[in-house]
């Protein structure tokens, strides 16, 4: 035994005698993780969060979250002697007078954008592959919570520097709060310590941004990961992969090296962006004052769809009995996002009700094999995308030589017409892909090789798929529609009348599939051909 | 029917294919060297960072294609840090992919739910615990506890009371009073009608009395836009026309939608546009909303002249300025 091994043994022994960790670690170092590029998306979100914690901590060493008025004396000449809040002045100080400060600010901002993008793409992956099904509904809900928190955290973060752009964003947030019926004015006055903008809001959201929300994030992420660990990761279907096993690489060493290395890659790419790609150049905007605004004001991308909804809202207000309800703010700012997020959170339960499927699922779906879910996702995505496009309508108008009115009307009509259209088209595409899969399994791959038969007939040679490929394309279950029971044998009506009817309708739509090839069909063909 | 639906048989995990480095020692050696080179590149990156941090002047600029004129200090530390991190990552992944075991392993899943005995035992333990506490038998304790616990949460809410003042009538008032002089922003100079040419726009605020200070809250309510048109261009009723002076019309600059500054004026169409959500207001028709999400015109400020010929407010705003709120009556 070498000296090094002896020391390692002693240390391990010391720790184990006090914690009994050896048995637990032994098992978990061998833990198997399936490998697929799409499983990295959640990892990107996790690593961006760590980058945010590190870069954010650095920024707190200089940032002064105070709205008291100071006169800028730093090295950025165009703003010399200008009155501004201490928050803005310290953000300028970080950008110009702290070495590495600007780099860290830009890394922090880029990491926030990547964090949100990774969460959204990870969510889409989980949705379209059905990874949210039993037993992973809790993790789906935690994910929705993290997404919501991320939007809030990001918004608070870019509001902190108190520049003209971020102040304009806060003004809009305040108007949404103020529009709440009955309590809005009161909540706004409490939150802002009086009339907008006041002098207390930035210090207050600072506490939320660097302590409260990151704390909740840490707790939720921990539970999210513990559940992934405990429930074991899902895997894509393929030969040898079943609902009862996990096929992949052991944590130690392969997976650990890959995942650990990937953290450095994500950090490296974020640092590269921070080095070469300017983001949120607050010194160009100037300090916030409610009497000014810069043209082309744009929120960060994950707020853009909300802004787009607000922009396209119809000019509706109700004035009655001495009170005002602003539908033009409440609808796009609270009601529609509320419906979207609630629907998203409830989706696993809705789907399991429609299919009547209460079993555990660890094998992922190929999106084409679940046309209804895939189409629904495409529909929601289309809705959000049109809202996002409208959020940038001023920028798009100037770049593509359109008028804002044209884009606005396109969005107003499109957001109603295009999502259902996306549903229908996506469902058709899924069914076509199923048909193509069926063709592939039964008739093989087109090779492009044309052969003339002695009879003069031309045929194309088809190459048979491997057994593994055939299995992958046919291993999935095809759901059956739930039959509607309107009355039992004795003629007693089903007490769940309407609910049962709805369930039957939905499950019939859900069961619309192209019949996959069966073993018998494949065998028949094989014996016929060869 | 059901017999034909039998699926294809699972052929099982495909045979493992060895990588070049697994069977060829030369390939393995090459992979090892590649990993070492990648790690060395990382070290070089960190050196670049240290050098740039201490020895490149913070105001040194270099010209680069695509990026243009770039601060060399920022670029040096940024790229140094990026390479320092990135190549460690690439090295580790390359190491894992070429030299670490890549044989896929199968682990079995176990059903997540507990054994029925365990569940029954849990239910029993919980029941026994509740019984031992006597909650069922002593409703008085249960009810008083629920009541007390509900009340105990109240201080947490009540203590938030002093976060801010009650709104009162604050949202309905501005600093514009009858006779308040309009002064330029910035500059605080009184304005005469002749200072504005036809087609011109100016931002004004109420004049400060001696000893008064102007806060951002004040600006957020008081900011006003002056626009001068030809009097014949107005399409206003008698009252609103009397609120203008020689073609000069004054509107609150705070958007009636969500409170942004309505900062864009288009001279040819005489439209005011809010850059936040593109509510568009027609100046000739008392800022009527002609496009966008705002549901109300911008409030108009009645103006006239004082004895010295300076523009003054004829009266306060006749309605609250800024975005809507519950207590607003019109």
* Largest beta-sheet details of chain A: 2 strands, antiparallel
| Helix share, percent of chain B | 25-40%
Specify the CATH architecture of one domain in chain A: Up-down Bundle
Q: Separation of termini of chain B?
A: 70 Å
Assembly classification = heterodimer
Order of helices and strands of chain B: HHEEHEHHHEEHEHEEEEEEEE
How much of the sequence of chain B is in beta strands? 15-25%
| CATH C-level category of one domain in chain B | Mainly Beta
Overall mean pLDDT of chain B: 92
CATH homologous superfamily title of one domain in chain B: Rieske [2Fe-2S] iron-sulphur domain
Outline of chain A: globular
Strand elements of chain A, count: 8
Largest interface: A-B, 116 and 96 residues
Mean pLDDT of chain A: 93
Give the strand order, joined by hyphens, for the main sheet of chain B: 4-5-6-7-12
Please give the structural blueprint.
The complex is a heterodimer of chains A (530) and B (330).
Chain A: H1 3-19, H2 21-29, E1 32-33, H3 40-60, E2 69-71, E3 83-85, H4 86-97, H5 101-128, H6 137-159, H7 164-178, H8 184-192, H9 201-231, E4 245-250, H10 251-276, H11 282-285, H12 301-312, E5 317-320, E6 323-326, H13 327-355, H14 371-391, H15 393-400, H16 404-443, E7 445-452, E8 458-463, H17 467-474, H18 497-510, H19 519-529
Antiparallel strand pairs in A: 1-4, 2-3, 5-6, 7-8
Helix pairs in contact in A: 3-5, 3-10, 4-5, 5-6, 5-10, 6-9, 6-13, 7-8, 12-13, 12-14, 14-16, 16-17
Chain B: H1 20-23, H2 25-55, E1 61-64, E2 68-71, H3 72-98, E3 105-108, H4 116-133, H5 139-152, H6 154-158, E4 182-184, E5 201-206, H7 216-222, E6 224-228, H8 238-242, E7 248-252, E8 264-266, E9 271-273, E10 280-282, E11 288-291, E12 300-301, E13 303-305, E14 311-313
Antiparallel strand pairs in B: 1-2, 4-5, 5-6, 6-7, 7-12, 8-9, 9-10, 10-11, 13-14
């Amino acid at each position: 035994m070498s000296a090094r091994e002896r020391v390692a043994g002693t240390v391990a022994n010391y720790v184990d005698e006090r914690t009994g960790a050896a048995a637990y670690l032994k098992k978990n170092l061998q833990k198997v993780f399936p490998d697929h590029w799409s499983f990295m998306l959640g990892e990107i979100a996790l690593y961006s969060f760590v980058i945010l914690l590190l870069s954010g901590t650095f920024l707190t060493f200089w940032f002064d979250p105070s709205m008291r008025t100071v006169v800028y004396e730093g090295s950025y000449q165009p703003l010399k002697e200008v009155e501004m809040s201490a928050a803005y002045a310290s953000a300028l100080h970080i950008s110009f007078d702290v070495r590495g400060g600007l780099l860290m600010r830009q890394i922090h901002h880029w990491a926030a954008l990547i964090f949100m993008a990774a969460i959204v793409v990870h969510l889409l992956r989980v949705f379209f592959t059905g990874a949210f099904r039993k037993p992973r509904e809790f993790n789906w809900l935690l994910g929705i919570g993290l997404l919501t928190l991320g939007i809030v955290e990001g918004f608070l973060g870019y509001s902190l520097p108190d520049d003209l752009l971020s102040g304009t964003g806060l003004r809009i947030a305040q108007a949404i709060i103020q529009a709440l019926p009955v309590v809005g004015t009161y909540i706004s006055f409490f939150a802002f310590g009086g009339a907008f903008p006041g002098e207390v809001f930035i210090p207050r959201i600072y506490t939320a941004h660097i302590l409260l929300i990151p704390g909740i994030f840490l707790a939720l992420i921990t539970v999210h990961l513990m559940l992934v660990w405990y429930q074991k990761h899902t895997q894509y279907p393929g030969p040898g992969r079943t609902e009862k096993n996990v096929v992949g690489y052991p944590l130690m060493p392969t997976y650990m090296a890959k995942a650990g290395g990937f953290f450095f890659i994500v950090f490296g790419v974020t640092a590269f962006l921070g080095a070469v790609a300017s983001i949120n150049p607050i010194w160009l905007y100037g300090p916030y004052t409610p009497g000014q605004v810069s043209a082309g004001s744009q929120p960060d991308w994950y707020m853009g769809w909300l802004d787009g909804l607000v922009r396209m809202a119809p000019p509706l207000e109700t004035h009655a009995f001495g009170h005002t309800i602003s539908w033009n703010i409440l609808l796009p700012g609270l009601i529609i996002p509320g419906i979207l997020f609630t629907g998203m959170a409830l989706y696993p339960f809705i789907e399991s009700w429609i299919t009547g499927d209460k079993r555990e699922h660890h094998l992922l779906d190929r999106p084409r094999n679940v046309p209804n879910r895939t189409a629904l996702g495409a529909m929601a995505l289309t809705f959000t995308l049109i809202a996002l496009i409208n959020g940038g309508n001023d920028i798009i108008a100037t770049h593509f030589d359109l008028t804002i009115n044209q884009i606005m009307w396109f969005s107003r009509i499109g957001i109603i017409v295009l999502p259902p259209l996306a549903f229908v088209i996506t469902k058709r595409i899924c069914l076509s892909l199923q048909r193509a899969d069926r063709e592939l399994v039964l008739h093989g791959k087109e090779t492009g090789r044309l052969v003339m038969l002695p009879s003069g007939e031309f045929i194309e040679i088809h190459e048979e798929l491997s057994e593994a490929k055939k299995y992958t394309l046919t291993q999935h279950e095809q759901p059956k529609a739930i039959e509607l029971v309107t009355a039992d044998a004795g003629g007693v009506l089903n007490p769940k009348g309407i609910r049962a009817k709805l369930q039957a309708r939905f499950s019939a739509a859900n069961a619309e599939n192209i019949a996959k090839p069966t073993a018998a069909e494949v065998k028949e063909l094989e014996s016929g051909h060869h | 029917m059901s017999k034909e639906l039998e699926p294809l048989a699972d052929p099982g995990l495909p045979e493992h294919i060895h990588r070049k480095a697994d069977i060829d020692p030369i390939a393995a050696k090459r992979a090892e060297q590649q990993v070492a080179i990648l790690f060395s590149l990382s070290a070089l990156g960190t050196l670049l960072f240290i050098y740039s941090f201490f020895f490149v002047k913070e105001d040194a600029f270099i010209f680069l294609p695509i990026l243009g004129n770039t601060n060399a200090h920022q670029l040096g530390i940024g790229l140094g840090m990026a390479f320092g991190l990135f190549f460690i990552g690439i090295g580790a992944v390359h190491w894992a992919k070429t030299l670490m075991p890549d044989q896929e392993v199968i682990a079995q899943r176990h059903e997540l739910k507990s054994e029925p005995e365990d569940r029954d035992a849990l239910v029993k333990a919980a029941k026994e615990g509740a019984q031992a506490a006597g909650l069922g038998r002593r409703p008085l304790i249960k009810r008083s506890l629920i009541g007390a616990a509900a009340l105990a949460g109240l201080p947490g809410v009540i203590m938030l009371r002093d976060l801010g003042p009650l709104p009162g009538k604050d949202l309905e008032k501005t600093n514009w009073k009858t006779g308040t002089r309009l002064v330029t922003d910035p500059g605080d100079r009184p304005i005469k009608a002749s200072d504005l040419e036809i087609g011109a726009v100016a931002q004004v605020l109420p004049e400060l009395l001696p000893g008064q200070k102007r806060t951002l809250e004040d600006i957020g309510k008081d900011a006003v836009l002056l626009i001068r048109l030809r009097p014949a261009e107005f399409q206003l009723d008698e009252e609103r026309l009397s609120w203008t002076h020689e073609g000069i019309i004054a509107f609150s600059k705070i958007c009636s939608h969500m409170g942004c500054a309505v900062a864009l004026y288009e001279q040819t169409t005489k439209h005011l546009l809010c850059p936040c959500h593109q509510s568009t207001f027609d100046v000739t028709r008392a800022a009527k909303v002609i496009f966008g999400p705002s549901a109300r015109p911008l409030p108009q400020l009645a103006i006239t002249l004082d004895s010295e010929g300076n523009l003054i407010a004829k009266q306060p705003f006749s309605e609250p300025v800024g975005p809507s709120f519950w207590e607003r009556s019109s």
